[in-house]
Specification:
This protein is of the alpha/beta class. It has one domain: Glutaredoxin. Helix content is 45%, strand content 15%. It has eleven helices and nine strands. It has helices at 10-24, 27-42, 45-48, 71-77, 91-102, 104-109, 122-132, 145-149, 161-167, 170-174, 210-222, and strands spanning 60-62, 68-70, 80-84, 113-118, 139-140, 153-155, 180-182, 186-189, 195-199. The strands form three sheets. It has a five-stranded mixed sheet with strand order 5-4-3-8-9, with helices on both faces. Strands 1-2 form a two-stranded antiparallel ribbon. This is thioredoxin-dependent peroxiredoxin. Residues 1-15 have a biased composition (Low complexity). Residues 50-222 form the Thioredoxin domain.
């Protein structure tokens, strides 16, 4: 019998999606997007955002199910995975959401909670969850309020504004005219409210590998025993 093929890692899926985009879109558009990523990176946001060993910032946010979550209440009970996604219009975000769903049992089995945040309106976030068949409820980070406190928010560079404003209708999706987005950051926070793992990348095609997140969670959870 042949050997069963291993499921793709999230990084492999993201790379494949990026390669598909490279075939679909004209070279000038691809260059514009790459240049925009570099513009964001050049702001230094990856280094100025909250990092490992920094204190996490508390907040009280509400999900599309109407339930409110206070972050400090969550991390006082066990480690928390705090993850931002940009919106359901982003194919890379959807891949990440589905990948994290597959690791949800491993995260919760280690005594941790996955808390997902997004700037998209609650009704849009509900649609995103249903479209990706995920069980977790995204909290509404209205106008990127909490992401801003974590240092994750950047203004969309002028060359790509028309794409987000006119084609993706970002203002309608987020309920805000601000042409800005958060980095798709992932943090692991311990029970003292300290950041123990951080994934920060200006490149929207790059995301935290779920296996790395689970390993970080297990390490933090193991220290309590």
């Amino acid at each position: 019998m042949g050997q069963e093929s291993q499921p793709q890692t999230l990084q492999q899926q993201l790379k494949q999606k990026s390669e598909e985009a490279g075939k679909r879109f004209p070279p000038e558009m691809l260059k514009t997007m790459r240049d925009a990523v570099q513009t964001v990176r050049d702001t230094g946001i990856e280094k100025s955002a909250k990092q490992v060993s920094d204190a996490a910032i508390d907040a009280e946010l509400t999900g599309w199910n109407g339930k409110t979550v206070k972050l400090s209440d969550a991390w006082s009970e066990g480690p928390v995975v705090l993850m931002w996604y940009r919106g359901g219009w982003c194919p890379y975000c959807n891949l990440q959401l589905r990948a994290m769903q597959k690791e949800l049992k491993a995260i919760e089995g280690a005594g941790a909670k996955l808390i997902v945040l997004t700037p998209e309106l609650p009704e849009k976030a509900k649609e995103t969850a249903e479209a990706n068949d995920v069980d977790f409820v995204a909290l509404y980070d209205k106008e990127n309020g909490l992401a801003r406190k974590y240092g994750l928010v950047f203004a969309l560079p002028d060359p790509i504004l028309p794409l987000y404003r006119d084609r993706l209708k970002l203002a309608e999706v987020n309920g805000s005219d601000a042409m800005e987005l958060p980095l798709s950051a992932t943090y692991v926070i311990d029970t003292k409210g300290k950041i123990r793992y951080a994934f920060l990348d200006a490149d929207y095609t790059q995301r935290a590998e779920p296996a790395d997140v689970v390993a970080a969670v297990k390490q933090v959870a193991g220290e309590k025993k």
